[in-house]
Amino acid sequence: MKGLEELHCEVSSWDKVFSTTILALLRDSATLTVFDVIAPRIQNAHSVLLVRALGANSTLRDLTLSSSDVAVEPELFVAFMSSTVTLKRLKVVGNRCAVEYDMLKRIFLGMLKNSTVSSLEAHELCVHKANVKLGAKMLAQNKVLRSFSLLHCSYVSFNMSREEITAARDSINAS
């Protein structure tokens, strides 16, 4: 697979062999420019290894990953976002089974330190007042972002309990 440029894969779980293979491809490929791997229920250890492998890849232009990969080690994700010089498109897909309050905050913090991403997409994430303010700051300061999409995201209020937010999200997903 020396010439592999794009990898697209959506799985519900990873085993050790699959993880080792995917991570080796990401880490060692000199031609991989598109990494579109969504695995919302992988083990935390695999997510950490995935984000570390992202930092080792110097050819990636287009990245799609699950919000769970960002959530496990947000500092690693922000460090990756601040160090990448090739990434142009970032897409983060939320997990319908989990309410992740701070996911957009983590993405926006990464974008504040990034100077290459021109397209940002967030799917099925929670939007609330605090991350809207941070998003506005990111949009005001970012000089390269040309496309920004929030798709199927839920607005949550801090006056709601976690159970109320989960119930509201479940009712949205059911419709």
From TrEMBL:
Xref: InterPro entries: LRR_dom_sf (IPR032675)
Protein origin, superkingdom: Eukaryota
UniProt-recorded name of the protein: Uncharacterized protein
Record lineage: Eukaryota, Metazoa, Ecdysozoa, Arthropoda, Chelicerata
